[in-house]
Write a structure and sequence with these properties.
The chain is an alpha+beta fold. It is built from eight helices and eight strands; from the N terminus they run H-E-H-H-E-H-E-H-E-H-E-H-E-E-E-H. 37% of the residues lie in helices and 16% in strands.
Length: 215
């Protein structure tokens, strides 16, 4: 990463828009930071990983959001505006029903994403044959991350074998109301969102939830 990009990431950190490096858990986005009305409400990320959020609600607020989310039986939104699919033909959420689905928002130069990839690829290796479908939605932060060849190089480097849709226009990102890299959304076999997590960490909890949903 060149000096200009490093300075930009530091500048974002100082503004409170993002955090990278030691002690950080997620990169906040400048693009798509205003959630649309259909955005998915976060159910577990702030509670399980407080350092991942730019602001931390109090316990009563977290409980209220969690209870509201559980009651709404939210479905995973469909993929939108995907310019290209890597490792797969185009897929839809509807086609994925019957599987446990893990949606992973990432971008390859984000250090927080790089640190989570060994866990995500391990879950693919362990559970794909049991019904887990991982979709790694690649939404870029910088211009060079929009290049499909650069994404392919990163996928080869990290051993990513699951489908990766390229979301260069941030349309799927916005459909999910997402604001962070990395961010995981986990749905049951009926397509109901049951768990999500922002940033690094909570790997054991995430894997246990995957195992429970697989039965």
């Amino acid at each position: 990463m060149n000096v200009r990009l490093l300075r930009r990431r530091r500048f974002l950190t100082y503004l409170g828009l993002g955090a990278v490096g030691i002690g950080s858990a997620a990169c906040a986005a400048q693009i798509g930071s205003t959630n649309p009305p259909t955005a998915i409400a976060s159910k577990t990320s702030v509670e399980s990983n407080p350092t991942a959020a730019t602001t931390k609600p109090n316990n009563s607020e977290v409980k209220a959001v969690d209870e509201k989310s559980k009651a709404s039986s939210q479905k995973l939104p469909e993929f939108q505006g995907i310019s290209q699919w890597l490792n797969s033909n185009p897929l839809t959420i509807q086609e994925l029903k019957g599987n446990v689905v893990l949606i992973q928002f990432w971008t390859f130069s984000c250090i927080n994403c790089q640190r989570t990839l060994p866990y995500v690829t391990k879950w693919h290796d362990r559970y794909a044959s049991k019904g887990l479908k991982i979709i790694g939605v690649h939404t870029p932060e910088f211009a060079f991350e929009r290049d499909a060849n650069n994404i392919k190089d990163a996928m080869q480097k990290h051993g990513i074998l699951y489908p990766v849709p390229i979301d260069n226009e941030f349309k799927t990102w916005k459909a999910y109301g997402n604001e962070y890299w990395p961010h995981l959304y986990l749905a049951d076999r009926q397509g109901n969102l049951v768990y999500d997590h922002i940033g690094e960490g909570a790997y054991d909890r995430t894997e246990q939830t995957i195992k429970q949903l697989l039965g």
